[in-house]
């Protein structure tokens, strides 16, 4: 029984009602994602969500877990950044770009289509196509994922400069 939960702390009454539970969950999955990507500290945490305009999608299994209280399977965090981008010809343009900021599925659930459920939901929700997204240092797994599900196998490497 999989559900996508949209976490937007600024709007969500639920988030304020169960703040402690939610922050514990976000901090834990944020850390798990960081470890999976070999990062020193998490990109996603309850505090960071509170102070940002980022959009977080959580894939949950409502009846999962030992006590059947539900569990979180994965996360996908999106956000807009004003970036200087280079096209294939090396021409530079400044563009407000939708970026994949964090993407993680729990190790026990990888390669079972969960990442695809999250990603597809986000694409529809945000009305974008996969090739329009910017990704900061995509992992090998993510590159394989993009190739498999969206036929994207030609990346245009960037030296990202964020505009102030
Ligand atoms: C990237 C990630 C979110 C994909 O989630 P997922 O649930 O495994 O994705 P799906 O099941 O929908 O798609 C599976 C496809 O993703 C790619 N993939 C997933 N795990 C992989 C692995 N260990 N090695 C190579 N490719 C992998 C493959 O293309 C795979 O298809 P295949 O099993 O037929 O080879 C997940 O692998 C993950 O959390 N990785 C660790 C964190 C990470 O790298 N995040 C990206 C940050 S830039």
TrEMBL record:
Residues 1-164 form the N-acetyltransferase domain. Keywords: Acyltransferase, Transferase. One of its GO terms (cellular component) is microtubule. One of its GO terms (molecular function) is tubulin N-acetyltransferase activity. CDD domains: NAT_SF. InterPro entries: Acyl_CoA_acyltransferase, Atat, GNAT_ATAT. This is Alpha-tubulin N-acetyltransferase-like. It comes from Diaphorina citri (Asian citrus psyllid).
């Amino acid at each position: 029984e999989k559900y996508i939960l949209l976490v937007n702390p600024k709007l969500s009454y639920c988030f304020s009602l169960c703040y402690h539970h939610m922050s514990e969950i976000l901090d834990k999955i944020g850390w798990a994602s960081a470890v999976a990507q070999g990062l020193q500290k998490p990109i996603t945490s309850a505090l960071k969500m509170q102070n940002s305009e980022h959009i977080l999608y959580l894939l949950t299994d409502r009846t999962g877990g030992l006590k059947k209280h539900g569990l979180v399977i994965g996360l996908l965090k999106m956000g807009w950044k004003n970036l200087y981008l280079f096209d294939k010809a090396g021409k530079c343009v400044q563009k407000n770009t939708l970026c994949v900021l964090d993407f993680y599925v729990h190790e026990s659930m990888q390669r079972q289509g969960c990442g695809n459920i999250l990603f597809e939901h986000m694409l529809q929700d945000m009305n974008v196509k996969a090739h329009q997204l910017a990704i900061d240092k995509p992992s090998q797994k993510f590159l394989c994922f993009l190739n498999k599900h969206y036929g994207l196998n030609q990346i245009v490497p960037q030296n990202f400069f964020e505009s102030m």
